[in-house]
């Protein structure tokens, strides 16, 4: 009897062992087949683009959807583009601290230098210039103060809005426009500083960004302010009552796109590079034109011709110009003497 029980137990153990082996083999087969099937199916791709916020409309309404469609049609792989929008300098700071951007679309090349210092962008990686905009003056309808150039912003009694150069690239570009319009005419540093300080004495309100400053103007604050041409035209299309004055001598703000090398894997790089190519292609440039962004080198075909436009290179390049005009002239000399009202925090910090 005892031997029969032992034999039954051994038989059951043997059958259990065989069943276990067969089950494991089946599981392995299922996993292998699943991997084969999965490897044969195109995997979805997600790309994260950080962009300064006056580009939000053209990117989300036109360029992102068009590129996603073109990529999926050409590769059979699903693509999702996530856009993060904000002030250019703030975005550069976030990326420097590890934000997961694959691409950075910035309002000036100075911010790319910041990414290189933080080792998020390789030293040898060069940003691509993809668009530009002259800095213009927005006034009330009918231009009651008869403003035609930046020097007119110094006229007595004028109340001036200004994007804050500490938080807004539009504010930085405005400083360069106001100073450079005089300096490149006279080549006299002292005269240009005197003229620029006269303009800033009319400052009544600082906005944290171009968009916030535009909102303040829309709500009735002050008489004029300096901003990007394309943002002024978009505001007109939205029905905001204003007049756009293009000074005969103004700076051309130049926009750049750069790959964030530290975040882009070898598998992701083809789609990231393809997006940059699309942005520079005829299709991408036509989309930008529809939103009033000029090409990197304006050809004047569909835009108002500029008089004597200049660039930051004409002032010595971003490194020298930022130090002299923003860090020294604005922050250490002029700003300390100003007493503008702060903009309401609720207006946000878009660039």
Provide a descriptive summary of the structure in words.
- By secondary structure, this protein is an alpha/beta fold.
- The protein folds into two domains: 45-131 and 254-290, Periplasmic binding protein-like II (D-Maltodextrin-Binding Protein, domain 2), CATH 3.40.190; 133-253 and 305-347, D-Maltodextrin-Binding Protein, domain 2.
- 46% of the residues lie in helices and 17% in strands.
- It contains eleven helices and ten strands.
- The protein has helices spanning 2-40, 56-75, 88-96, 110-117, 169-186, 189-200, 210-218, 229-237, 269-280, 282-290, 318-334; strands spanning 45-52, 79-86, 103-106, 128-139, 160-163, 203-207, 224-228, 243-245, 252-259, 341-342.
- The strands form two sheets. Strands 1, 2, 3, 4, 7, 8 and 9 form a seven-stranded mixed sheet that branches. A three-stranded parallel sheet has the order 5-6-10.
- Helix 3 (88-96) runs parallel beside helix 4 and helix 5 (169-186) packs across helix 6 (189-200).
């Amino acid at each position: 009897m005892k031997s029969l029980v032992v034999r039954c137990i051994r038989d059951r153990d043997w059958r259990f062992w065989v069943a276990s082996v067969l089950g494991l083999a089946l599981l392995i087969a299922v996993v292998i087949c699943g991997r084969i099937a999965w490897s044969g199916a195109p995997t979805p791709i997600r790309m994260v683009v950080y962009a300064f916020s006056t580009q939000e409309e053209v990117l989300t309404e036109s360029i992102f959807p068009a590129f996603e469609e073109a990529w999926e049609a050409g590769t059979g792989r699903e693509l999702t583009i996530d856009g993060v929008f904000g002030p250019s300098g703030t975005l550069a700071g976030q990326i420097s601290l590890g934000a997961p951007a694959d691409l950075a679309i910035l309002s000036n090349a100075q911010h790319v230098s910041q990414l290189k210092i933080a080792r998020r962008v390789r030293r040898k990686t060069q940003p691509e210039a993809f668009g530009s905009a002259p800095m213009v003056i927005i006034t009330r309808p009918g231009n009651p103060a008869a403003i035609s150039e930046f020097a007119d912003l110094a006229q007595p009694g004028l109340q001036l809005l200004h994007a804050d150069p500490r938080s807004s690239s539009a504010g930085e570009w405005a400083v360069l426009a106001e100073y450079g319009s005089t300096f490149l005419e006279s080549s006299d540093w002292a005269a240009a500083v005197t003229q620029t300080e006269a303009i800033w004495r009319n400052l009544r309100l600082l906005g944290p960004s171009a968009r916030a400053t535009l909102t303040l103007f829309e709500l009735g604050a002050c008489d004029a302010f300096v901003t990007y041409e394309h943002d002024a035209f978009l505001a007109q299309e939205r029905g905001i009552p204003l007049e756009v004055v293009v000074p005969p001598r103004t700076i051309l703000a130049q926009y750049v796109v750069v790959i964030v090398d530290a975040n882009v894997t070898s598998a992701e790089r083809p789609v990231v590079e393809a997006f940059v190519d699309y942005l520079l292609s005829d299709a991408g440039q036509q989309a930008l034109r529809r939103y009033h962004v000029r090409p990197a080198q304006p050809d004047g075909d569909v835009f108002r011709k500029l008089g004597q436009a200049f660039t930051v290179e004409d002032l010595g390049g971003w490194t020298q110009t930022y130090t002299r005009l923003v860090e020294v002239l604005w922050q250490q000399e002029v700003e300390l003497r100003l007493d503008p009202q702060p903009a309401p925090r609720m207006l946000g910090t878009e660039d």
